[in-house]
Amino acid sequence: MKCRRCGKRAVIDIKAHHTAFCRDCFILYVHRQVRRAIAEYRMFSREDKILVCVSGGKDSLALWDILLSLGYECHGLHLDLGIDGYSERSRMKAVEFAQKRGCTLRVISMEEMGIPVPKLAKKSRRPECSVCGTVKRHFFNKAALEGGYKVVATGHNLDDEAARLLGNILHWQWEYLAKQRPVLPPVSDLLVRKVEPLCRLSERESAAYAILTGIDYILEECPMSKGATSIRYKHALNILEDSMPGAKMSFYTGFIKNLPRLSRAWEDLHGAIGEDSGGSFSRCSECGSASFTDPCNFCRLTIESGLRPR
Ligand code: SF4
Ligand SMILES: [Zn+2]
Ligand SMILES: [Zn+2]
After folding, report:
1. What's the distance, Cα to Cα, between the start and end of the chain in Å?
2. Which of 18, 40, 65, 66 is the most exposed, fewest CB within 10 Å of its CB?
3. Average model confidence (pLDDT) across the chain
4. pLDDT of residue 293
């Protein structure tokens, strides 16, 4: 198998694009896909300061590496979720990456705040991943506002987004469908813009990028992910992709193209979405965060669990 670009020996084939690349050309391809996503969805400009959420896994570290390679000003944020053993090992990967590249990384520890995710889930009697999602959304936005960042970038890839889309469609979750997009615009001075620059790259491509560029990432999965429905959706989509290369990409990008039709659902729920639109957001009276409800989801969770952050 030869590289389609330079003719050298290919190290990876990409069936969805009927192509194959050597290491160097694959890296160029990945950078091009990310540049295309940034431009196509108007994620950010050269002037924007970006906060990259890094878990220590392949996607988020690859994202940080790619944005640095493309010359963006971006710093890292790692949330130590307080999951026994796994969180320490994940944190170490994020810290080591930052040290190697001489990059700024902020670490926020849930354990130190007295709200480790497993304990919060137990006390509030809610599923770990739902608690984890609430905690992440809260601290990603809070840290971005505190640090003066315009944009929060996460490492969600095409497989993540296609699986999320499949789940939202299977259950016809209109509110989630209306909010699923590679860019969520800022809302006044309460919520910063959220972007997913890896949305054009599959999980396999993102892993290959991490391996070929020598990124040392955590290989083990989060112990809480066992039995997660998203894994089943990914599996179903992989079966489809095997016999129909490109199916994931056309499923996801087709949905994004048709998003304007769904904007009515969003408007019905929260008022028009748009740059600096305040919608029906207000501030949580407990923590001051943007929220549709008072208290916000994060404060309701910590109040219910009896574990308030220190
Ligand atoms: S699997 Fe669940 S608990 Fe673990 S990091 Fe993901 S969302 Fe959080
Ligand atoms: Zn090549
Ligand atoms: Zn709050």
Report:
1. 57
2. 18
3. 93
4. 87
Structural domains of the chain sorted by starting position, each given as residue range(s) with its CATH number in brackets: 43-305 (3.40.50.620)
Q: Which residues pair with 9 in a beta bridge?
A: 2
- pTM for this entry: 0.92
Geometric angle at alpha carbon 60, from 59 and 61, rounded to 5°: 95
CB 118 within 8 A of CB 31: no
Q: In what order do the strands lie in the sheet with 183-184?
A: 105-109, 74-80, 50-53, 151-153, 193-195, 183-184
Residue 102 pLDDT class (50, 70, 90 cuts): very high
Ligand 1 site-directed mutation target among 60, 124, 130, 224, most atoms within 8 Å of CB: 224
Cα(36) to centroid(ligand 1), Å: 29
Give the mean model confidence (pLDDT) for residues 275-290: 74
- Among 160, 157, 156, 149, CA closest to 193: 149
Instruction: Of 307, 79, 42, give the one whose Cα is nearest residue 195.
Output: 42
Q: Which ligand is nearest to the CA of 121?
A: 1
Mutate to test the pocket of ligand 1, among 225, 229, 230 (most ligand atoms within 8 A of CB): 225
222 lines ligand 1 (CB under 6 A): yes
Mutual angle of helices 297-305 and 128-147, in 10-degree steps: 130
State the Cα angle at 145 between 298 and 52, rounded to 5°. Answer: 90
Q: Is 61 in the pocket of ligand 1 (CB under 6 A)?
A: no
**Which ligand 1 atom is the nearest neighbour of the CA of 136?**
8
Peptide bond into 295 cis (omega under 30): yes
pLDDT (tens digit, 9 = 90+) per residue, 140-188? 999 999 999 999 999 999 999 999 999 999 999 988 888 899 999 998 8
